[in-house]
Amino acid sequence: MNINEWKHMFKLDPAKEISDEDLDKVCESRTDAIIVGGTDNVTLDGVLDLLSRIRRAHTVPVVLEISDEEALTPGFDYYFVPMVLNSKEKKYVMDIQQKAIKEYIDMMEYSEVYFEGYCILNPEAKAFQHTNCELPETDDVKAYAYMAENVFHLPIFYVEYSGTYGDPELVSEVKAELNKTKLFYGGGIETSEQAKEMKEHADAIIVGNSIYTNLKQALKTVDAVKGE
Questions:
Q1: pTM (whole model) above 0.85
Q2: Which reactions are catalysed by this chain (predicted)?
C-alpha cells in the first residue's frame, strides 16, 4: 500500500514496555503501519529490539520517526523526519535534520524518507517542551500548513496534540488549507468515536498512548477508521 493511502497508524515508543502478546495484537490489527518513535530515552538498543520483535513474525510496514540521530539504524521500510515548525529554535526545524541526513543518508537510501511538517499543540507535552515550542493560534497553524505544502513542499503535515485529545474544528480548518500534502493527526485518541471524529478531517490518524493504557480500546480504533 502506498503511504498516501494510509488511514491508521500505531505509534510504539521504544522506551516503553510492551509484551510479545500485546505487540502481536498491534501488528495483526490491520493498521497500515507501525511508527517507532518517542521523545525521551530513545536509544539504539531500544529501537533495534522493537524492530526485531516486529520483524520476527509480522509483515506490517515499519517506520522510524527520527527524534535522535544516534538511534538511527537500517532495516526500516520508511523514515519520517520531523520538522517542528512552531519551535522557537531553528535547530528543531532544520539543523538536526541536516545533520542526520549528512551522516546517515547512505543508510536510509534504500528506504523511503519523508519529511513531516510538525505542529505541536499541547503545552504540557514533553515533545512541546523538549523542542521549545510556542503555542500557535488557529490562524498560525493554518499558515504553517500552507507553508508545509507551498513553501517546503512537504508530503506530510502532522498536527500533534501528544497525550491530549485535540480540537476537531481546528483540524478541519487545517485540512482545508491542504491539497497535496497529507494531514496526519496524533494525540489523545482512546476510543472508536474519537478515531472516527478525527478521521473525518485528517487523512490519517496515529494512535500511541492508549496502546499502553487501554489496548483493547486502542485496537478498536483500526476498524473505526478502516471499517470491518
A1: yes
A2: sn-glycerol 1-phosphate + all-trans-heptaprenyl diphosphate = 3-heptaprenyl-sn-glycero-1-phosphate + diphosphate
